[in-house]
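ugh ok fine here u go
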Amino acid sequence: MKMIKTTLPPVTQEKLILFTALWLSLFYNVAMFTHITDVYPPSGENILYIASVFVVQVGITALLFALLSTRYTIKPLLITVLLVSSLMAYFMNKYNVIIDNNMIRNALQTDLNESRDLLSWQMLGYLFFLGLLPSYVIYKIPIQEKSWKEAFRARLKTIFFLVLLTFGSVALFGKFYASFFREHKVLRMYANPGYWIYSTFYYIGEHFKQKHETLKRIGLDAKIDDNATRKIVFMIVGEAARADHFSLNGYNRRTNPKLETENLINFSKMYSCGTSTAYSVPCMFSIYNRSDYSYEKAKYTENVLDVLKHTGKVAILWRDNNSDSKGVALRVQYEDFKTAKNNPVCDIECRDIGMLQGLEHFIEDHPDKDILIVLHQMGNHGPAYYKRYTKDFEKFKPVCKTNQLEECTQESVTNGYDNALLYTDNFLASTIEFAKKYTQSATAVLYMSDHGESLGEHGIYLHGLPYFIAPDAQKHIGSFLWLNKRYKQMLDIHKIASKKDKKLSHDYLFHTLLGLFGVKTKVYNPALDITH
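structure:
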């Protein structure tokens, strides 16, 4: 008996483009159309508006493929878009995130260990059914052969048809689209694959635009008085610690039991520069305020660590238990504490508390210098909050023990997050205890989280939404300052305390660090110094 061999019938490039665009619009844009129907409930004229958006989505996607593909590139192009779009659909559907250029930067700067926390069978299901299967069909389907003249005419006709279809749909419902584009532009950011493709090209363009720029040096005039008291400052960069889950800020759970016993100044209204680590960490150490900051500008401008280094009197150490310093510590001593080679406190992962080990040696090795030690936490990095603390800190139960947060109750997600904050409380209090040993120096512990975190409110998880639409939970962050007796004698403690409930932001960090060390330089702005 002969085996029956099936072959797919050949199709034109134009049909393949249209069918792929239709497939993408139908199955990869659930997040976009969910948000659209939230704003425009599907009844009456709204049904026509939603149908029009679908037509425009298909038209723009097909037009993009028609403009970029040739006989030899069409399959690689469509397969790449399908594979990437399947993952984009997963993250948008499950975490309600938007894939913009900052999210792309954050993803590219995330290390393998953090990426593993995002892996799940559901994610692999998206990749298989929405990525690999349709890609295999496209790989196997034969393309009709045409002469270059026939192919050119067919492509022109298709482009003309798609332009007419797309812009005709927009013109037909002009008033709707005028409102849609003006008042609900965020809805466009969920378009898959259009927006992630745009964001990728934007990211690449910005990356290469300044690739050959030289580093802008600042604060070369920085000086510290020779007779000043020696200062030791511990700057702790937190991770995903939202302010409203700090009992220091009135949260109804005791997530800061140890910090509550310390005589510190808690800044209850501190706000982040961005909503992701890749954006916020360079921003908070840069001279630029959030209003004029860009990642590219910061990359080619020295930061506050450089200005302190210019004084010649501050020894600086950056220890990192997160992904890395995001370019901030390129010119100072850097130690990776995400590895058991350096971090003595590792189990299923290396712990923040391990960053305190051996710090006394760095301080002793620089007896004639002031000291700045930056500790970059793993903190509350999601979605696997249950991994961010040891068993003895699991106070709030039950706990979501999966990275599929939407499958858990919001209570169990919150419980895991709050347990991780309890562990951070222990780490921060331990840092203060370590600092207390240096009674002959002016010693300070300054803490700021890089950004906040969404825990399922309104179906939003994690962080990274564009700042202008991000909820307060992703921007309102935990922050405090602890000073020992010698530092309090040098500073106006009452003036600092008067700012504890004032609205502050990452804009203040650059100048506050300069102020803590008593640095004199033209780039110092006392109005943005919390200690001034």
